[in-house]
Amino acid sequence: IVLVSGHLDSWDVGQGAMDDGGGAFISWEALSLIKDLGLRPKRTLRLVLWTGEEQGGIGAKQYYQLHKENISNFDIVMESDEGTFKPSGLGFTGSAKARDIMKEIMTLLQPINVTDVYDNADGTDIDYWMRDGVPG
């Protein structure tokens, strides 16, 4: 499973759609583009639109509790939580071997100059998974 996600930080009808409703739509669009291009991923791609991050990450905790028994099926967890600005790369946490794979994948984004792989990923909604060794 490749988990692609973003959360809706804004409290219900309040303002704050850029912090980070944008990440939810970036994640949605990434999967939409894969489908539109007719690509057939080798792994299951799963979109999660988190909620409850501002209330203590209760959505992420509940999802983790429901799916942690299948943790060996998760290859990577990703969360967009930086807005919809021009990307420069990805933050990454994982083994040296996984980092080498991520750096190779990022070379595919050379045409748009988004190739950096930064040390350490973080994300309220994916921290449970990364603490258990899933690359993030």
Shape: globular
- The low-confidence parts are none
State which percent range the strand residues make up: 15-25%
Helix count, DSSP H or I runs of 4 or more residues: 4
Strand tally is 5
- Mean pLDDT, all residues: 88
How would a textbook summarize the main sheet? Answer: 3 strands, parallel
**Overall helicity:** 25-40%
- Strand arrangement within the widest β-sheet reads 2-1-3
The CA-CA distance between the termini, in Å, is 12 Å
Rounded to an integer in angstroms, the radius of gyration calculated over CA atoms is 15 Å
Structural class: alpha/beta
User: How do the helices and strands follow one another from N- to C-terminus?
Assistant: EHEHEEHEH
What does this protein structure show overall?
- The structure is a single chain.
- The chain has a domain at 2-86 and 123-132.
- It is built from 4 helices and 5 strands; from the N terminus they run βαβαββαβα.
- It has helices spanning 17-36, 58-67, 96-106, 127-131; strands at 2-7, 45-50, 76-80, 89-92, 116-119.
- The strands form 2 sheets. It has a 3-stranded parallel sheet with strand order 2-1-3. It has a two-stranded parallel ribbon with strand order 4-5.
- α3 links the parallel β4 (89-92) and β5 (116-119).
- The chain is globular, with a radius of gyration of 15 Å.
